[in-house]
Write a structure and sequence with these properties.
alpha/beta, Rossmann fold, 5 helices, transferase
Amino acid sequence: QQVANALALLRGRAGKTVDLGSGDGRLVVEAYKQGLRPAVGYELNPWLLCLSNYRAWKAGYHGKVSFLKKDLWKVNLSDCYNVIVFLAPSVKPPLAAKLLAELPDEARVVAGRFPFPSWTPSSTLGQGLEQVWAYDMKEVRRAARSGVGGSPV
């Protein structure tokens, strides 16, 4: 349900889709299946990368989706328009700063499990563990400039 909710908030969007800390790859595979292309996962755990590639192969998407062993802090996100983040709350403040610095205004960030504490979501879906939050970077930047919604990070 969490995967379905996250991708529902990206429905109809175009541009590069990335999952930061892509885990077992299910979000990337499903994003590709729903027409979000290119679909890329960044993950450091080699076992999870193997599982992701197996999942893509099993779905018939081998060579169509990418799973890269890269540190999300070192990846340039300036060409990403759809960003999926299912990461711990402690990572959100420094990640917010990176996303603000690198993403284009047209980008949308979807967070699962935990929202970005100082950003106001443009939409949300689900409840409890299935809840996801969408943030449109243009709105996040506008709120940051006007001082509404707390600090930008």
